[in-house]
Amino acid sequence: MDVGVKNQVELFLMSFRNFFDEGRIKYEFNRKTSLFFTEMGWSKVKAAKYIRENINIVDYCEGPNPHHFKPNTTVTIFGVELDNREIYVKISIDDNDCGCMSFHPCERPLNYPLKGVS
After folding, report:
1. For the chain, what is the radius of gyration of the CA atoms?
2. Is 28 domain-assigned?
């Protein structure tokens, strides 16, 4: 495993937590996510807090990749477990804040390249 990837993910998570703690989160959830929130009875703030409290380096799947329409912004994919379901989580970060973009059950199995890496 490339140590650079692990360090990059650690920095990403530190930035995400700092943005969250400073209240610098934009909620940009997609339709699939909104429907999942309705099913769960969750708010966007509760979901972001769940991510903040539960996401770890071993949950990393891919990225950071360029955002599909925002310049100078990257997106990183994670997978977390919630109620025995694998949840797809996409988070964007730029220089000023971060956006929680996706939080819904996975549509396909995710790859976790940092599981088992110390």
Report:
1. 14
2. yes
Range of the domain at 101: 3-105
Instruction: State the CATH number of the domain containing residue 43.
Output: 3.30.2310.40
| Cβ neighbours of residue 105 closer than 8 Å, sequence gap 6 or more | 36, 85, 86, 87, 88
Distance CA(43)–CA(60), nearest Å, equals 23
How far is 65 from 92, CA to CA, in rounded Å? 9
What is the count of structural domains for the chain? 1
Segment 84-91 long-range contacts (CB within 8 Å, at least 24 positions apart): 86/110, 89/51, 89/55, 89/59, 91/12, 91/16, 91/51
The whole-angstrom separation of Cα 76 and Cα 56 is 13
Dihedral (Cα; 81, 53, 22, 70), 10-degree rounding: -10
Question: For each of the chain's 118 residues, which pLDDT tens digit applies?
Answer: 567 888 889 988 998 899 889 988 888 778 899 899 999 999 988 888 899 999 999 999 998 877 777 777 778 999 999 989 999 999 888 777 777 778 999 999 999 999 876 5
